[in-house]
Amino acid sequence: MEDKNNASMKAQRRRRQRVARMRNTIMMTVGIWILLSMVFCVGLTVQMIRLNHRIDELALNAVTVQQMADQMEEYKGTAKENDMQSYSLKEEGGTEDAPDGTEPESTDVIDPDNQVQEEVPQKVYLTFDDGPSENTAKILDILKEKDVKATFFVTGNEEESAKELYQRIVAEGHTLGMHSYSHKYSVIYSSLESFQDDFNRLRTYLTEITGVEPQIMRFPGGSSNQVSNIDMREFIRYVGAQGVTYYDWNVASGDATSQAYTPGELVENVMKDVVKYDTSIVLMHDASGKGTTVEALGPMIDQLKSMEVELLPITEGTRLIQQIPADSINE
Length: 331
Ligand SMILES: [Zn+2]
Prior knowledge:
Elements: H1 2-91, E1 123-129, H2 136-146, E2 151-155, H3 160-171, E3 175-180, H4 185-188, H5 192-210, E4 216-217, H6 232-241, E5 245-246, E6 251-252, H7 263-274, E7 279-285, H8 291-306, E8 310-311
Parallel strand pairs: 1-2, 1-7, 1-8, 2-3, 4-5, 6-7
Helix pairs in contact: 2-8, 7-8
Bound molecules: zinc ion.
């Protein structure tokens, strides 16, 4: 009986021990699980923090890029505004900074045919944009004194003094070309209709004042200007349909750049390019505040004459100097 009791107690103890072992095993397993989960969670948290940092960095970069883009946009806007401002200043008789020559990407018209030929005199066409201005009479006086004919690409000005200047340009044998009535890029290049209005307003006005219908023009900023939001070919097509020829330039005096050239430097700028071409069309400006152009003109003509080039006004048949050639445009 005692034996039996002993045996049963032993069996009970063993069972308890087994249960205890199982409980320990389970608790250990659970413990390890919890520990592993915690390690895993900590790992995940660290990873998450790192990713968050990365996202912040990327976001910051994106903001910087966006800011840069905004700044560039703003800069472009300001450049255009400055343009407009300078021309409204002009209307008020203030000083202005003509944008031509600074706007187009390139002033070099690459034309393999336009090479200097031996024993054929080079042709040089002096052109003045943006007049009439307070300098027009001075320019005309110098041209008269030097017996040189040139080309004026003019804007619209209804003052009596301006009317006399348009007439004087024609009367003294120079070519009167159109530039634009308003010279406001934001207006004339805003739509084809707007361009047409400006074009016809100037053409009619000049014909009325001088009795001569202008046959040539120069686009403000040149035919390849980067200001127009509309494809320039739209305007080129229109101008062509009106029987008007446009001329750009292949020699820039630099009188419209922000760099303040001395008269001597303006002459140098012209001379170093004129030697390259059979036909040179020289860009200059007839605008208030461009006194250096007036000062440079006499010496420039003297130097050109010493090279024995022909100084001519643009007429029908003058070699086309066009940044976007008119004949490259399909009707
Ligand atoms: Zn201009």
